[in-house]
Design brief:
The complex is a heterodimer of chains A (248) and B (181).
Chain A lengths: L3 E4 L2 E4 H21 L9 H23 L1 H5 L15 H18 L4 H26 L13 E3 L2 E3 L2 H21 L6 H17 L8 E2 L3 E2 H30 L1
Antiparallel strand pairs in A: 1-2, 3-4, 5-6
Chain B lengths: L5 H18 L25 E3 L5 E3 L7 E7 L4 H17 L4 E8 L3 H11 L5 E4 L3 H5 L7 E5 L5 E6 L5 H13 L3
Parallel strand pairs in B: 3-4, 4-5
Antiparallel strand pairs in B: 1-2, 3-6, 6-7
Helix pairs in contact in B: 2-5
Classes of the chains: A mainly alpha (248), B alpha/beta (181).
Chain lengths: 248, 181
Protein backbone atom coordinates (compact mmCIF):
# COMPACT_ATOMS: atom_id res chain seq x y z
CA UNK A 1 0.00 0.00 0.00
CA UNK A 2 1.82 3.08 -1.25
CA UNK A 3 -0.67 4.82 -3.56
CA UNK A 4 1.24 8.09 -3.71
CA UNK A 5 4.90 8.96 -4.16
CA UNK A 6 5.65 12.42 -2.81
CA UNK A 7 8.43 14.15 -4.78
CA UNK A 8 8.77 17.65 -3.36
CA UNK A 9 5.46 19.39 -4.07
CA UNK A 10 4.39 16.70 -6.56
CA UNK A 11 2.17 13.82 -5.48
CA UNK A 12 2.72 11.14 -8.11
CA UNK A 13 0.24 8.28 -8.38
CA UNK A 14 2.39 5.16 -7.95
CA UNK A 15 0.02 2.83 -9.89
CA UNK A 16 0.22 5.10 -12.93
CA UNK A 17 4.03 5.20 -12.66
CA UNK A 18 4.17 1.40 -12.61
CA UNK A 19 1.93 1.13 -15.67
CA UNK A 20 3.95 3.66 -17.67
CA UNK A 21 7.23 1.98 -16.68
CA UNK A 22 5.76 -1.41 -17.62
CA UNK A 23 4.70 -0.28 -21.08
CA UNK A 24 8.06 1.42 -21.68
CA UNK A 25 10.21 -1.52 -20.49
CA UNK A 26 7.96 -3.97 -22.31
CA UNK A 27 8.29 -2.06 -25.55
CA UNK A 28 12.08 -1.98 -25.22
CA UNK A 29 12.04 -5.76 -24.89
CA UNK A 30 9.60 -6.15 -27.79
CA UNK A 31 11.81 -3.94 -29.95
CA UNK A 32 14.76 -6.31 -29.54
CA UNK A 33 12.81 -9.27 -30.91
CA UNK A 34 10.58 -7.61 -33.50
CA UNK A 35 12.92 -7.91 -36.49
CA UNK A 36 13.01 -11.69 -36.13
CA UNK A 37 9.28 -11.71 -36.91
CA UNK A 38 9.60 -9.48 -39.93
CA UNK A 39 8.21 -6.45 -38.09
CA UNK A 40 10.07 -3.15 -38.30
CA UNK A 41 10.87 -2.29 -34.64
CA UNK A 42 10.53 1.41 -35.44
CA UNK A 43 6.84 0.79 -36.19
CA UNK A 44 6.02 -0.52 -32.72
CA UNK A 45 6.34 2.73 -30.73
CA UNK A 46 4.06 4.76 -33.04
CA UNK A 47 1.53 1.90 -33.08
CA UNK A 48 1.41 1.73 -29.27
CA UNK A 49 1.31 5.51 -28.98
CA UNK A 50 -1.62 5.73 -31.41
CA UNK A 51 -3.46 2.98 -29.54
CA UNK A 52 -2.88 4.59 -26.12
CA UNK A 53 -3.94 8.06 -27.30
CA UNK A 54 -7.03 6.74 -29.08
CA UNK A 55 -7.83 4.61 -26.04
CA UNK A 56 -7.70 7.53 -23.60
CA UNK A 57 -9.60 9.80 -25.97
CA UNK A 58 -12.28 7.16 -26.64
CA UNK A 59 -12.61 6.38 -22.93
CA UNK A 60 -13.11 10.04 -22.01
CA UNK A 61 -15.56 10.81 -24.84
CA UNK A 62 -17.55 7.66 -24.16
CA UNK A 63 -17.76 8.55 -20.44
CA UNK A 64 -18.76 12.13 -21.24
CA UNK A 65 -21.48 10.90 -23.62
CA UNK A 66 -22.96 8.87 -20.78
CA UNK A 67 -22.80 11.89 -18.42
CA UNK A 68 -23.79 14.54 -20.95
CA UNK A 69 -25.53 16.77 -18.39
CA UNK A 70 -22.47 16.95 -16.11
CA UNK A 71 -20.15 17.86 -18.99
CA UNK A 72 -22.55 20.33 -20.60
CA UNK A 73 -22.41 22.54 -17.52
CA UNK A 74 -18.60 22.14 -17.26
CA UNK A 75 -17.20 21.39 -20.75
CA UNK A 76 -13.60 22.16 -19.75
CA UNK A 77 -13.73 19.04 -17.57
CA UNK A 78 -13.26 17.03 -20.78
CA UNK A 79 -9.55 17.82 -20.26
CA UNK A 80 -9.58 16.83 -16.58
CA UNK A 81 -6.76 14.56 -15.38
CA UNK A 82 -9.24 12.63 -13.21
CA UNK A 83 -8.73 8.98 -14.22
CA UNK A 84 -12.17 8.15 -12.86
CA UNK A 85 -13.79 9.94 -15.79
CA UNK A 86 -12.92 7.16 -18.23
CA UNK A 87 -15.11 4.43 -19.66
CA UNK A 88 -12.84 1.36 -20.04
CA UNK A 89 -15.02 -0.31 -22.69
CA UNK A 90 -15.17 2.82 -24.82
CA UNK A 91 -11.40 3.10 -24.47
CA UNK A 92 -10.83 -0.52 -25.45
CA UNK A 93 -13.06 -0.18 -28.50
CA UNK A 94 -11.36 3.04 -29.63
CA UNK A 95 -7.89 1.54 -29.04
CA UNK A 96 -8.65 -1.62 -31.03
CA UNK A 97 -10.20 0.40 -33.83
CA UNK A 98 -7.18 2.70 -33.97
CA UNK A 99 -4.85 -0.32 -34.02
CA UNK A 100 -6.76 -1.85 -36.96
CA UNK A 101 -6.85 1.39 -38.94
CA UNK A 102 -3.19 2.20 -38.25
CA UNK A 103 -2.12 -1.38 -39.05
CA UNK A 104 -4.01 -1.33 -42.36
CA UNK A 105 -2.60 2.06 -43.36
CA UNK A 106 0.98 1.05 -42.56
CA UNK A 107 0.46 -2.48 -43.95
CA UNK A 108 1.60 -4.13 -40.73
CA UNK A 109 1.37 -7.94 -40.84
CA UNK A 110 -1.51 -8.67 -38.43
CA UNK A 111 -0.38 -11.82 -36.60
CA UNK A 112 3.37 -11.06 -36.71
CA UNK A 113 2.75 -7.63 -35.20
CA UNK A 114 0.76 -9.18 -32.36
CA UNK A 115 3.63 -11.65 -31.80
CA UNK A 116 6.11 -8.80 -31.81
CA UNK A 117 4.04 -6.98 -29.17
CA UNK A 118 3.68 -10.02 -26.92
CA UNK A 119 6.85 -9.34 -24.86
CA UNK A 120 5.47 -5.85 -24.15
CA UNK A 121 2.13 -7.30 -23.08
CA UNK A 122 3.83 -9.86 -20.82
CA UNK A 123 5.91 -7.16 -19.06
CA UNK A 124 2.88 -4.85 -18.79
CA UNK A 125 0.96 -7.64 -17.05
CA UNK A 126 3.58 -7.57 -14.25
CA UNK A 127 3.15 -3.80 -14.03
CA UNK A 128 -0.62 -4.21 -13.67
CA UNK A 129 -0.02 -6.47 -10.66
CA UNK A 130 2.37 -3.93 -9.14
CA UNK A 131 -0.18 -1.16 -9.74
CA UNK A 132 -2.85 -3.21 -7.94
CA UNK A 133 -0.42 -3.79 -5.07
CA UNK A 134 0.36 -0.07 -4.82
CA UNK A 135 -3.32 0.93 -4.83
CA UNK A 136 -4.51 -1.94 -2.62
CA UNK A 137 -7.10 -2.74 -5.28
CA UNK A 138 -7.89 -6.17 -6.78
CA UNK A 139 -7.64 -7.37 -3.18
CA UNK A 140 -7.94 -10.94 -1.93
CA UNK A 141 -10.72 -12.86 -0.20
CA UNK A 142 -10.54 -13.04 3.61
CA UNK A 143 -8.59 -16.11 4.69
CA UNK A 144 -6.35 -17.22 7.53
CA UNK A 145 -3.16 -18.68 6.06
CA UNK A 146 0.48 -18.29 7.10
CA UNK A 147 0.96 -15.95 4.14
CA UNK A 148 -2.25 -13.93 4.57
CA UNK A 149 -1.80 -10.17 4.60
CA UNK A 150 -3.72 -7.61 6.64
CA UNK A 151 -5.48 -5.32 4.17
CA UNK A 152 -8.64 -3.24 4.55
CA UNK A 153 -9.28 -4.50 8.07
CA UNK A 154 -9.04 -8.26 7.45
CA UNK A 155 -6.38 -10.89 6.81
CA UNK A 156 -6.65 -11.77 3.13
CA UNK A 157 -5.12 -13.71 0.27
CA UNK A 158 -2.25 -11.55 -1.09
CA UNK A 159 -4.02 -11.64 -4.47
CA UNK A 160 -1.83 -8.86 -5.91
CA UNK A 161 1.29 -10.91 -5.10
CA UNK A 162 -0.27 -13.98 -6.76
CA UNK A 163 -0.96 -11.79 -9.78
CA UNK A 164 2.64 -10.52 -9.95
CA UNK A 165 4.11 -14.02 -9.50
CA UNK A 166 1.84 -15.46 -12.17
CA UNK A 167 2.75 -12.67 -14.61
CA UNK A 168 6.46 -13.25 -13.87
CA UNK A 169 6.04 -16.99 -14.42
CA UNK A 170 4.28 -16.40 -17.74
CA UNK A 171 7.06 -14.05 -18.87
CA UNK A 172 9.66 -16.66 -17.84
CA UNK A 173 7.75 -19.42 -19.63
CA UNK A 174 7.50 -17.46 -22.88
CA UNK A 175 10.99 -15.93 -22.70
CA UNK A 176 12.73 -18.69 -24.72
CA UNK A 177 9.98 -18.46 -27.35
CA UNK A 178 10.64 -14.75 -27.91
CA UNK A 179 13.78 -15.71 -29.87
CA UNK A 180 12.39 -18.85 -31.49
CA UNK A 181 10.79 -18.95 -34.95
CA UNK A 182 7.14 -19.99 -34.89
CA UNK A 183 4.09 -19.73 -37.07
CA UNK A 184 2.72 -16.18 -37.03
CA UNK A 185 0.22 -15.60 -34.23
CA UNK A 186 1.12 -18.60 -32.10
CA UNK A 187 3.24 -16.71 -29.55
CA UNK A 188 0.47 -14.15 -29.06
CA UNK A 189 -2.30 -16.74 -28.84
CA UNK A 190 -0.27 -18.79 -26.37
CA UNK A 191 0.26 -15.71 -24.19
CA UNK A 192 -3.46 -14.85 -24.29
CA UNK A 193 -4.48 -18.43 -23.50
CA UNK A 194 -2.08 -18.82 -20.56
CA UNK A 195 -2.93 -15.38 -19.15
CA UNK A 196 -6.67 -16.06 -19.40
CA UNK A 197 -6.14 -19.45 -17.73
CA UNK A 198 -4.13 -17.83 -14.92
CA UNK A 199 -6.81 -15.19 -14.40
CA UNK A 200 -9.53 -17.84 -14.34
CA UNK A 201 -7.59 -19.75 -11.67
CA UNK A 202 -6.57 -16.77 -9.52
CA UNK A 203 -9.96 -15.01 -9.55
CA UNK A 204 -11.10 -17.58 -6.98
CA UNK A 205 -8.84 -15.93 -4.38
CA UNK A 206 -10.13 -12.41 -5.04
CA UNK A 207 -12.38 -10.62 -2.57
CA UNK A 208 -13.88 -8.17 -5.06
CA UNK A 209 -15.35 -10.46 -7.73
CA UNK A 210 -18.51 -9.30 -9.44
CA UNK A 211 -21.10 -12.10 -9.17
CA UNK A 212 -23.49 -12.91 -12.03
CA UNK A 213 -25.91 -15.81 -12.67
CA UNK A 214 -26.23 -17.24 -9.17
CA UNK A 215 -22.78 -16.42 -7.84
CA UNK A 216 -20.60 -17.17 -10.88
CA UNK A 217 -17.74 -14.69 -11.07
CA UNK A 218 -17.97 -12.48 -14.16
CA UNK A 219 -14.18 -12.29 -14.58
CA UNK A 220 -13.96 -16.09 -14.74
CA UNK A 221 -16.67 -16.34 -17.39
CA UNK A 222 -14.92 -13.69 -19.50
CA UNK A 223 -11.53 -15.38 -18.95
CA UNK A 224 -12.99 -18.73 -20.01
CA UNK A 225 -14.44 -17.23 -23.19
CA UNK A 226 -11.09 -15.57 -24.01
CA UNK A 227 -9.27 -18.86 -23.32
CA UNK A 228 -11.69 -20.78 -25.55
CA UNK A 229 -11.38 -18.20 -28.35
CA UNK A 230 -7.55 -18.26 -28.19
CA UNK A 231 -7.41 -22.07 -28.31
CA UNK A 232 -10.00 -22.21 -31.09
CA UNK A 233 -8.13 -19.70 -33.27
CA UNK A 234 -4.85 -21.51 -32.56
CA UNK A 235 -6.40 -24.81 -33.65
CA UNK A 236 -8.10 -23.32 -36.71
CA UNK A 237 -4.86 -21.69 -37.90
CA UNK A 238 -2.89 -24.92 -37.37
CA UNK A 239 -5.58 -26.79 -39.30
CA UNK A 240 -5.44 -24.52 -42.36
CA UNK A 241 -1.62 -24.48 -42.22
CA UNK A 242 -1.49 -28.30 -42.13
CA UNK A 243 -3.98 -28.53 -45.01
CA UNK A 244 -1.94 -26.09 -47.05
CA UNK A 245 1.22 -28.09 -46.29
CA UNK A 246 -0.55 -31.34 -47.25
CA UNK A 247 -1.72 -29.92 -50.57
CA UNK A 248 1.77 -29.00 -51.72
CA UNK B 1 3.79 -43.60 -27.10
CA UNK B 2 1.76 -41.15 -29.11
CA UNK B 3 1.60 -37.58 -27.77
CA UNK B 4 -1.88 -36.50 -26.68
CA UNK B 5 -3.71 -35.00 -29.67
CA UNK B 6 -3.89 -31.23 -29.38
CA UNK B 7 -7.66 -31.04 -29.71
CA UNK B 8 -8.19 -33.41 -26.81
CA UNK B 9 -5.75 -31.43 -24.70
CA UNK B 10 -7.54 -28.15 -25.50
CA UNK B 11 -10.96 -29.65 -24.76
CA UNK B 12 -9.61 -30.98 -21.46
CA UNK B 13 -8.24 -27.54 -20.51
CA UNK B 14 -11.58 -25.89 -21.27
CA UNK B 15 -13.50 -28.49 -19.25
CA UNK B 16 -11.12 -27.98 -16.34
CA UNK B 17 -11.68 -24.21 -16.57
CA UNK B 18 -15.43 -24.70 -16.57
CA UNK B 19 -15.25 -26.99 -13.54
CA UNK B 20 -13.04 -24.52 -11.64
CA UNK B 21 -15.35 -21.62 -12.48
CA UNK B 22 -18.41 -23.52 -11.27
CA UNK B 23 -16.74 -24.71 -8.08
CA UNK B 24 -15.55 -21.23 -7.12
CA UNK B 25 -19.03 -19.71 -7.22
CA UNK B 26 -19.72 -17.12 -4.55
CA UNK B 27 -22.20 -17.95 -1.82
CA UNK B 28 -25.00 -15.52 -0.96
CA UNK B 29 -23.11 -14.43 2.19
CA UNK B 30 -20.37 -12.70 0.16
CA UNK B 31 -22.19 -9.37 -0.11
CA UNK B 32 -20.57 -5.99 0.50
CA UNK B 33 -22.49 -5.56 3.75
CA UNK B 34 -20.33 -8.26 5.37
CA UNK B 35 -17.17 -6.20 4.79
CA UNK B 36 -15.44 -4.31 7.58
CA UNK B 37 -15.29 -0.53 7.29
CA UNK B 38 -12.27 0.62 5.24
CA UNK B 39 -11.34 3.74 3.25
CA UNK B 40 -11.53 1.90 -0.09
CA UNK B 41 -14.00 1.64 -2.95
CA UNK B 42 -16.60 -1.03 -2.22
CA UNK B 43 -16.29 -0.90 1.58
CA UNK B 44 -18.54 0.69 4.21
CA UNK B 45 -17.16 4.15 5.02
CA UNK B 46 -15.40 4.38 8.41
CA UNK B 47 -17.26 6.46 10.99
CA UNK B 48 -16.70 10.21 11.24
CA UNK B 49 -17.88 12.10 14.33
CA UNK B 50 -16.58 15.65 14.37
CA UNK B 51 -17.69 19.14 15.29
CA UNK B 52 -18.29 22.10 13.02
CA UNK B 53 -17.05 25.58 13.78
CA UNK B 54 -20.31 26.29 15.61
CA UNK B 55 -19.81 23.29 17.88
CA UNK B 56 -22.48 21.19 16.16
CA UNK B 57 -21.54 17.50 16.19
CA UNK B 58 -22.05 15.61 12.91
CA UNK B 59 -21.88 11.84 12.52
CA UNK B 60 -21.53 10.16 9.14
CA UNK B 61 -23.59 7.19 10.35
CA UNK B 62 -26.63 9.48 10.74
CA UNK B 63 -26.47 10.39 7.04
CA UNK B 64 -27.53 6.98 5.68
CA UNK B 65 -30.04 7.41 2.87
CA UNK B 66 -28.17 10.44 1.52
CA UNK B 67 -25.25 10.64 -0.92
CA UNK B 68 -22.20 12.09 0.82
CA UNK B 69 -19.01 13.72 -0.43
CA UNK B 70 -16.26 13.64 2.20
CA UNK B 71 -13.49 16.04 1.19
CA UNK B 72 -10.28 16.21 3.23
CA UNK B 73 -8.68 19.63 2.87
CA UNK B 74 -6.47 22.29 4.41
CA UNK B 75 -6.30 26.02 3.74
CA UNK B 76 -2.56 25.89 2.92
CA UNK B 77 -3.14 23.39 0.11
CA UNK B 78 -3.57 25.10 -3.30
CA UNK B 79 -5.52 22.32 -5.09
CA UNK B 80 -7.88 22.10 -2.08
CA UNK B 81 -8.59 25.82 -2.35
CA UNK B 82 -8.98 25.53 -6.12
CA UNK B 83 -11.67 22.86 -5.97
CA UNK B 84 -13.82 24.42 -3.22
CA UNK B 85 -15.83 26.71 -5.55
CA UNK B 86 -16.76 23.72 -7.75
CA UNK B 87 -17.83 21.75 -4.67
CA UNK B 88 -19.95 24.73 -3.56
CA UNK B 89 -21.67 24.98 -6.99
CA UNK B 90 -22.43 21.26 -7.04
CA UNK B 91 -23.69 21.46 -3.44
CA UNK B 92 -26.01 24.33 -4.38
CA UNK B 93 -27.44 22.34 -7.29
CA UNK B 94 -27.90 18.96 -5.59
CA UNK B 95 -28.50 19.85 -1.95
CA UNK B 96 -32.27 19.66 -2.38
CA UNK B 97 -31.86 16.29 -4.12
CA UNK B 98 -30.23 14.74 -1.05
CA UNK B 99 -26.52 15.55 -1.36
CA UNK B 100 -24.45 16.15 1.78
CA UNK B 101 -20.92 17.58 1.66
CA UNK B 102 -18.61 17.13 4.65
CA UNK B 103 -15.40 19.14 4.23
CA UNK B 104 -13.02 17.71 6.82
CA UNK B 105 -10.31 20.24 7.64
CA UNK B 106 -7.16 18.42 8.70
CA UNK B 107 -3.51 19.32 9.50
CA UNK B 108 -4.44 23.00 9.47
CA UNK B 109 -4.40 26.15 11.54
CA UNK B 110 -7.92 26.99 12.71
CA UNK B 111 -7.60 30.74 12.12
CA UNK B 112 -6.36 30.23 8.54
CA UNK B 113 -9.19 27.82 7.83
CA UNK B 114 -11.78 30.25 9.20
CA UNK B 115 -10.35 33.10 7.13
CA UNK B 116 -10.54 31.00 3.98
CA UNK B 117 -14.13 29.91 4.70
CA UNK B 118 -15.46 33.39 5.28
CA UNK B 119 -13.59 34.83 2.29
CA UNK B 120 -15.14 32.23 -0.03
CA UNK B 121 -18.69 32.04 1.29
CA UNK B 122 -18.79 28.27 1.62
CA UNK B 123 -22.08 27.03 3.06
CA UNK B 124 -21.62 23.26 3.44
CA UNK B 125 -20.61 21.82 6.84
CA UNK B 126 -16.89 22.10 7.55
CA UNK B 127 -15.64 19.71 10.23
CA UNK B 128 -12.41 20.13 12.16
CA UNK B 129 -10.21 17.06 12.59
CA UNK B 130 -8.06 18.67 15.31
CA UNK B 131 -6.09 15.58 16.34
CA UNK B 132 -5.96 14.14 12.79
CA UNK B 133 -7.62 10.89 13.94
CA UNK B 134 -10.20 10.85 11.14
CA UNK B 135 -7.51 11.54 8.54
CA UNK B 136 -5.57 8.54 9.85
CA UNK B 137 -8.69 6.36 9.82
CA UNK B 138 -9.24 7.32 6.18
CA UNK B 139 -5.53 6.81 5.37
CA UNK B 140 -5.30 10.29 3.90
CA UNK B 141 -1.73 10.74 2.69
CA UNK B 142 -2.33 13.57 0.24
CA UNK B 143 -4.57 16.63 0.35
CA UNK B 144 -7.11 16.90 -1.06
CA UNK B 145 -8.54 13.38 -0.92
CA UNK B 146 -12.23 12.97 -1.70
CA UNK B 147 -14.55 10.05 -0.95
CA UNK B 148 -17.93 9.55 -2.66
CA UNK B 149 -20.29 7.60 -0.41
CA UNK B 150 -23.62 6.14 -1.55
CA UNK B 151 -26.95 6.11 0.27
CA UNK B 152 -26.14 2.78 1.95
CA UNK B 153 -22.88 4.18 3.37
CA UNK B 154 -20.62 2.32 0.91
CA UNK B 155 -17.61 4.15 -0.59
CA UNK B 156 -18.12 4.21 -4.35
CA UNK B 157 -15.06 6.12 -5.49
CA UNK B 158 -11.95 7.73 -4.03
CA UNK B 159 -10.10 10.58 -5.70
CA UNK B 160 -6.57 11.14 -4.40
CA UNK B 161 -5.26 14.62 -5.21
CA UNK B 162 -6.94 17.43 -7.05
CA UNK B 163 -8.30 19.81 -7.94
CA UNK B 164 -11.45 17.89 -8.85
CA UNK B 165 -13.10 19.14 -12.01
CA UNK B 166 -16.72 20.15 -11.76
CA UNK B 167 -17.84 17.38 -14.12
CA UNK B 168 -16.01 14.83 -11.94
CA UNK B 169 -18.22 15.90 -9.06
CA UNK B 170 -21.43 16.20 -11.07
CA UNK B 171 -21.08 12.85 -12.86
CA UNK B 172 -20.36 10.91 -9.67
CA UNK B 173 -23.06 12.65 -7.66
CA UNK B 174 -25.71 12.21 -10.36
CA UNK B 175 -25.02 8.45 -10.33
CA UNK B 176 -25.28 8.23 -6.53
CA UNK B 177 -28.46 10.28 -6.27
CA UNK B 178 -30.23 8.22 -8.94
CA UNK B 179 -29.97 5.06 -6.86
CA UNK B 180 -32.69 3.91 -4.49
CA UNK B 181 -31.72 4.28 -0.81
Amino acid sequence: MFPVLQVGPLALRTPVLFLLAGVFLGLSLAERHAARRGVDPARLYPLVLVVLLAGVLGARLSYAAGQAAAFRSAPLSLLSLDSGLLDPWGGLAAGLLAALVYGQRKRLPFWSTLDALTPALAVSAIAVGLAHLAAGSAFGAPVSLPWSVLLWGVRRHPSQVYEILSALAILGLLWPRFRREARPGELFLLFIAISAGARLFLETFRGDSLPVFGGMRLAQIVAWLVLAAALWVFEARRGTADKAAGAE
Amino acid sequence: MQPIPRRILFAFILLLGLAWTTSSRLGPEAAASGQPAAPQTGFPAPEIILETLDGESISLADLQGQAVIVNFWASWCPPCRAEMPAIQRVYDDYRAGGLVVLAVNTSDNLADAQAFLSANGLTFPVLFDHDGAVGVRYRVSVLPTTFFIDKRGIIRSVVIGGPLSEASLRARIADLLEEAP
